[in-house]
């Protein structure tokens, strides 16, 4: 499974017409992705059939949110769910960078039956195994992770462990500088089956169809 992270509408259109399986729609690449605009989402849903997962993140930086920001996340899920979102991507941590069970559980239940991905906030937690087990209990379908390291290549030992222990209960979605030149090596080492990439070549601004084709070919 190949998911393409799209931070603006041009990349989204390229990816939705490509061999990718789905996209993660967000905005503000410099902030690591924020909740996208509803009008752009509605336009893409009307034009394309491929699944669109929507990032729900009201601000950049950390993943601890105050009450106002949490309420913004609630309203965003309600809005995008109403307009046909195929999945949601979010992750809430507490003040100690651990999984906020109560708030994540609330949002997963609110999104139901639409599947949810816990984003790379996961990589900030102290114990990846314990965090993974918690997310399984909450009901997440996917975890986007680089194995607790800056890149998937650096975290491939942890990714391999997580896949071996938990892939029958939750999808380990491998992300973090995943590119066509390294995805085959990462796949072979980790035995991973789910990959996430922006598919933006160096010195370019938008997702590239040829890069997506290579990613798809080397990751299956």
Can you describe this structure in just a few lines?
This protein is of the alpha/beta class and 220 residues long.
Topology:
Blueprint: E1 2-6, H1 9-16, E2 22-25, H2 38-47, E3 52-55, H3 67-82, E4 87-90, H4 101-111, E5 116-118, H5 128-138, E6 142-145, H6 156-166, E7 171-174, H7 183-190, E8 194-197, H8 209-219
Parallel strand pairs: 1-2, 1-8, 2-3, 3-4, 4-5, 5-6, 6-7, 7-8
Pfam families: CutC
GO molecular function: copper ion binding
Family: Belongs to the CutC family.
Structure write-up:
The protein has a single domain (2-219), classed as Copper homeostasis (CutC) domain (TIM Barrel), CATH 3.20.20.380. Helix 3 (67-82) packs parallel to helix 4 (101-111). Helices cover 39% and strands 15% of the residues. The protein has helices at residues 9-16, 38-47, 67-82, 101-111, 128-138, 156-166, 183-190, 209-219, and strands at 2-6, 22-25, 52-55, 87-90, 116-118, 142-145, 171-174, 194-197. It is built from 8 helices and 8 strands. The protein is an alpha/beta fold. The mean pLDDT is 97. An 8-stranded parallel barrel has the order 1-2-3-4-5-6-7-8, surrounded by 4 helices.
């Amino acid at each position: 499974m190949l998911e393409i992270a799209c931070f603006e509408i041009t990349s989204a259109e390229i990816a939705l017409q490509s061999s990718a399986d789905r996209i993660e729609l967000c905005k503000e690449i410099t902030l690591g992705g924020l909740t996208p605009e509803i009008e752009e989402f509605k336009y893409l849903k009307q034009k394309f059939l491929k699944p669109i997962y929507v990032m729900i993140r009201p601000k950049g930086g950390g993943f601890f949110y105050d009450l106002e920001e949490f309420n913004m996340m609630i309203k965003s899920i309600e809005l995008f769910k109403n307009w046909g979102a195929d999945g949601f991507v979010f992750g809430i941590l507490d003040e100690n960078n651990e999984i906020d069970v109560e708030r994540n559980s609330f949002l997963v239940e609110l999104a139901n039956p639409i599947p949810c991905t816990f984003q790379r906030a996961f990589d900030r937690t102290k114990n990846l195994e314990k965090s993974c087990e918690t997310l399984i209990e909450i009901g997440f379908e996917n975890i986007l992770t680089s194995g607790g390291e800056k890149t998937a290549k650096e975290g491939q030992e942890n990714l391999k462990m997580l896949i071996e222990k938990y892939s029958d209960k939750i999808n380990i979605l491998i992300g973090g500088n995943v590119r066509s030149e390294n995805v085959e090596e990462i796949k072979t080492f980790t035995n991973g089956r789910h990959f996430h990439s922006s598919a933006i070549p160096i010195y370019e601004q938008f997702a590239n169809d040829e890069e997506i084709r290579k990613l798809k070919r080397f990751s299956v």
